[in-house]
Amino acid sequence: MPSQIVSLVVNGEPREFIARPGTTLLTILRESLGLTAAKRGCAQGSCGTCTVLVDDRPATACLVAVETVADHSVRTLEGVASDGNLDEVQSSFVDNFATQCGFCTAGMIMVAEALLDRDPDPSEEDVIEAISGNVCRCTGYRPIVIAILDAARRRREAGVEPGRPAEEAVSR
Length: 172
Fold this sequence. Notes:
Blueprint: E1 4-10, E2 13-19, H1 25-32, E3 51-54, E4 57-60, E5 73-75, H2 88-95, H3 105-118, H4 124-130, H5 142-158, H6 166-171
Helix pairs in contact: 2-5, 3-5
Domain 2Fe-2S ferredoxin-type: 4-80
GO molecular function, one term: anaerobic carbon-monoxide dehydrogenase activity
Organism: Streptosporangium lutulentum
């Protein structure tokens, strides 16, 4: 099969590129678009380091053939911060020491973003279930769970509606 032009909306911006059939979303993000936050870990979809949001749902980019998500919306860690400011989830990961080597952090944050977008007040069990597809080999999971619960609290206190960045909530 010949290569084809694929269109996506990546972090809010329309993007087009040429891809061979079967090229993974992860390869396109990293090698064609220069978005390197999503990492290649196991390349089998079981470690979660490559997690991005496709139409606001977590997806393991290493398993997604890019042509299957043509014309969809993709959000990566690079699209989370706004104007150079960390969002509540990112700040909470830093403040709660939920990162160490950082290899799993992008995937963990993207899963947390999806969780808090659909449930602004998750229980600890909800958080544990949400991150269950992501592997961390450094910090253990407790600081990550605490960081996500803290981020949820920060968003509620700031009046951030699910799926909406804090600065938009403030400017309303």
